[in-house]
Each structure stands twice: as structure tokens, then as C-alpha cells.
Design goal:
13 strands, PSI domain-containing protein, alpha+beta, elongated, 5 helices
């Protein structure tokens, strides 16, 4: 059994230890996890998450062709994971990337990266692993989007999904993120702006 989920579903009453895998002897292979789980259960009258997993709402929207970081909220079932290096594995279309991550409390911060695509929208996924340890976390859907490719004019830009954070940059006549609009130039118009006013005589 290569995943925590498979291990937990086994009829052999096994436990998943992230430093060794699936085992029938968790007190030997991950004693700190078992001790903390017992203390937590006894004091709080509840149970720890069944498996470490990403709980950030899916999908995650990431802008394409600009440097961007990803933040993932987690449920952590094994304290030993806080001592390991986190690797964020990202698939966008046919491209595969490994990005270093940092775990702080219940949040994983994946280092900023450029998610390249020439299409308007590209589908992908992200999952985590700790050093060389298997399994991975669960996968979460990623949508990489390219404002430039999605809209050719101001009106098209204005009606894009608000989660894209696209706006119309007047100086270069392009739909894009506010940070893509040349510094020192104004304005950059979000969805609250009426494009028609660009062509209204003053």
C-alpha cells in the first residue's frame, strides 16, 4: 500500500507513518505521532485527521506567465512532517515542476514560480511530498489563466471571471494583471469600470 488512504482502508488495522509507510507497528515506527494522537483524543474528545491532506478550496487560480506563489491550507496528522522539507509537485498540461515549499503551522507556502501557457486557460494539479517520502498528499485542481489570451479588448476583459483579477491596461491596450501594467502609468481598470468611458470625449 503506497498511500495513506489505502493504508487506512486496509482490513489489517494498519497505521500510516510518514517516515516509514504503512505499518502494523505504529508505536515502533512513529511513536510521537501515536502519543500525540492519544493525548489529543483523550483531552479533546475528538480525532486527528485520518490522513495529511490539502484542504484549500479547489480549484486554485494562478496567473500564467508571471511569477506567482501558492498557499495551501493543510490538515496534518503526523508531527514528524514539520521536520521534513516540503516539495510542491505541479502539473500544468504536459509540464511538470518541482517547487520548494515551507510549512508554517497548518499552511504550506510553495515558492513563487512562472506557470507558462499560451492558451487562455490551462488545467493542472498540485500535490505535496515530504523529501523522498511516499505517499503524496491529495491532489488539488489548478487553473492557470492568461488574461492576454482571454480578452482582446476592454469589454471582453471586464466580463472575465472575477477570480482571474484581470483588468484593462490603457497604456498598452491589453488585458492583464495590475502588476503587468507599466509602472508609472494609469489607469488600470477592473470590472467596476465602464469601458465606454475610455471613448467618451472629455
Amino acid at each position: 500500500m503506497r498511500t495513506c488512504q489505502e493504508c487506512k482502508k486496509s482490513e489489517l488495522e494498519c497505521e500510516w507513518c510518514h517516515n516509514t509507510g504503512c505499518t502494523k507497528f505504529p508505536h515502533l515506527h512513529c511513536p510521537k505521532k501515536i502519543l500525540i494522537a492519544h493525548l489529543f483524543n483523550n483531552k479533546m474528545n475528538t480525532s486527528q485527521p485520518a490522513c495529511t491532506r490539502i484542504v484549500t478550496k479547489s480549484p486554485i487560480f494562478v496567473p500564467a506567465n508571471v511569477r506567482h506563489a501558492i498557499k495551501l491550507e493543510m490538515e496534518i496528522d503526523d508531527i514528524m512532517l514539520f521536520k521534513g522539507k516540503v516539495i510542491c509537485e505541479i502539473h500544468i498540461e504536459e509540464r511538470f515542476m518541482k517547487v520548494h515549499g515551507f510549512l508554517d503551522k497548518n499552511i504550506v507556502y510553495c515558492d513563487s514560480h512562472v506557470f507558462k501557457t499560451t492558451s487562455g486557460v490551462a488545467l493542472g494539479s498540485i500535490r505535496l511530498r515530504w523529501q523522498s517520502i511516499v505517499p503524496f498528499s491529495n491532489s488539488v485542481l489548478i487553473i492557470a489563466y492568461n488574461c492576454h489570451a482571454l480578452a482582446e479588448n476592454c469589454n471582453q476583459c471586464q466580463v472575465l471571471n472575477k477570480r482571474f483579477n484581470c483588468g484593462w491596461c490603457e497604456v498598452n491596450s491589453k488585458c492583464g494583471l495590475i502588476e503587468e501594467c507599466p509602472l508609472g502609468y494609469e489607469p488600470w481598470f477592473d470590472e467596476n469600470f465602464k469601458c465606454e468611458s475610455l471613448f467618451t470625449a472629455v
